[in-house]
Amino acid sequence: MRKRKMAAVLLAAALAATPVCGQFAMRAEAETVSQEAVGINVIYHTQQEILDRIKSDGISMTDALTFGENPVTTAPYSAGSLSQATLDSALATINQIRYIAGLPDNVVLSQEQNAYAQAAALVNYVNNQLSHTPTKPADMDEALYAQGYDGAQSSNIAMASWQNRSLNETIMHGWMDDGDKSNVDRVGHRRWVLNPTMGATGFGAVSGANGTYSAMYSFDRSGSGTQYGVAWPAQNMPVDYFEASYPWSISMGSSVNADAVKVTLTRVSDNRTWSFSTASADGTFHVNNGGYGQTGCIIFRPDDVGSYSAGDSFKVTIEGLDSPVSYTVNFFNEESVNGSQDDNTQQPGGGNDGDGTQKPGGGEDGDDTQQPGGDGNGTVSGGDGSVSDNNPQPPGNDQDDDQDNNQDNNPQPPDNDQDNDQDNNPQPPDNDQNNNQDNTQNDSQSNSQSDNQDKSPAVNEIVVAEDGMYENVVVKWGAVNADIAASAQSSGRNIDVIVGRRAAVPADILNQIAGRDMTLALHLGRGLALTITGTDMGSENTEFRVNLVSSTIPAQTAAAILENTARSREFSFDTEGVFPFRINMHINLGVENAGRTAVLYRFDSVKGIMVRTGVFVVNENGQAMFGLEQGGQYVAVVEEIRESREYKVVPGDTFNRIAARHGMTTAALKAANPSVRNINKIRVGQVLKID
């Protein structure tokens, strides 16, 4: 079972079980190799022992987020507290992960650390911004803010744009993912969870209209673990806990010379080999010696590995360390170990398809989060949508680089705190040819080319209006229904339908995907696509209508957010009402803007202002994705990195974001602007010097 997709990029693996034939021999051989691992010092557990532990824990990645005392998110504020059931389930998830990795699995809850984490979640929620150095809400008590600030500095943090995200999912598929580009070079969240010396932790979360903000206290070293060579995936790895988009990592416990290290990854079934070094890598490769949990972390992710399946084995060898390291990773599930599966047996990851499981990300990555990823994530990170922050700083090294990219990205060691909190949701596929509609329009207009061209599947004879939107599309919903039914046994499937600016999705279509790991992608034209994921929906749905109309945002109001932008896109719904479920809007902002920050604003027609509602880092395909809870008029902008040595503050800016955008530390920007006495009180239109 996979985490909820949040805003765009972590591609989920299809976790297909390998046929039972030959599994027992493979398992025995793999475990023998694993026990002969060289150069690592962790506790070895067999696959059966891990399965027994998972069943004994009885936890699910969808265990409900519940509260012992509800947080109060308006003045006078109250942090509230998580229920004991939620705290116990989250702690069991942490200890189960540590057991699988071969670490001491006796971490306990600390009431003090729970309080820090809960206050951190509250302050970030109230600010509606994920940060390890949050600003003080004007009407918040100083003591509560101080507790939240200290907690945020000392915790993994995450944000998902939807309410009541399971804390277990944030842990497993946000912080343990860390595969988004803001986290993959350090996998800091993961390393805090896998810190051998962790003896206690605490958790906090706040959920409401701003989404779900979570925190896990990380700066504890009261444990007695002395393990090194801590790997994820572990030697015996539940296949549902690790996706192809997740990076591999191993922390050696001492500094690693990046230029000397060479990693070789070999798939046992076909002897395919991937090699990784700073000189050349068959995928992603990083070495990080920062202080996230355990130092000396080697990170690698193979390209074109496909999905991981139960029964797959991979041999890892690492050269260039003080002594050689080698170990084997064996992916497994209940069926691959025991040959059959009781329908009532809880699988690794918990829950069954269709139970409302939230999916990634990292990231993630999406939300107003991404993700951790979410802030992952966020995770997830992933992403949101979700996900995950940019790792807490080791004590004494806080860097106020609170750039908001939505998917929680673990606490940072010194000089590396990039709060890229993007959530990571799936993009509508570029090549899936499931276009279930009548296409009877003028073919000569079907190839309208511009930098706003829709990236949805190719369709013949679709009329493209002057504004780039598809017009007069007649959808064969019966064919769509049949396509969904044919995919009943598939998970992570996207069903793509070109609908144009107006669409009425029948209730039976929505009820077909409700509760399932399936996404309906509605392509509107002009590089816009709206996606609905089954796990975001209830079981009983009515017809869902979409009607995009022309914007009526006053030009002077829009100008306030357009001044320092490289690109902008607007879209407006004919209603401002709340949607019956969460939707995600994918926007093509151009490949030339890849890596830049996109910000989504919504027009508040009552106050006559533009309100910042989401942040996303444009991916390599030029796509951004934002989670939407209601209609209205929106404008997405790509922030311009100004070459000028001066910068004019615009709505939504913070001092920390401005510094990060220009490659400066907060302290450096403050030094360049001595007239700024309080960095939390800059004003729109104020000019700052950029040195």
List the helices and strands and how they pair.
Elements: H1 23-35, H2 47-57, E1 67-69, E2 81-82, H3 84-101, E3 108-109, H4 111-127, H5 142-153, E4 155-160, H6 167-175, H7 188-193, E5 200-201, E6 203-208, E7 211-217, E8 230-232, E9 236-238, E10 248-251, E11 262-267, E12 273-276, E13 283-288, E14 297-302, E15 313-319, E16 325-332, H8 334-338, E17 377-378, E18 437-438, E19 463-464, E20 470-471, E21 474-475, H9 477-486, E22 493-498, E23 502-505, H10 507-513, E24 518-525, E25 528-533, E26 544-549, H11 555-562, E27 565-573, E28 578-588, E29 597-604, E30 609-617, E31 623-630, E32 633-639, E33 646-648, H12 655-661, H13 666-672, E34 687-689
Parallel strand pairs: 3-5, 9-16, 22-24
Antiparallel strand pairs: 1-2, 4-7, 6-7, 8-10, 10-14, 11-12, 11-15, 13-14, 15-16, 18-21, 19-20, 23-26, 24-25, 25-28, 26-27, 27-32, 28-31, 29-30, 29-32, 33-34
Helix pairs in contact: 2-3, 3-6, 4-5, 9-10
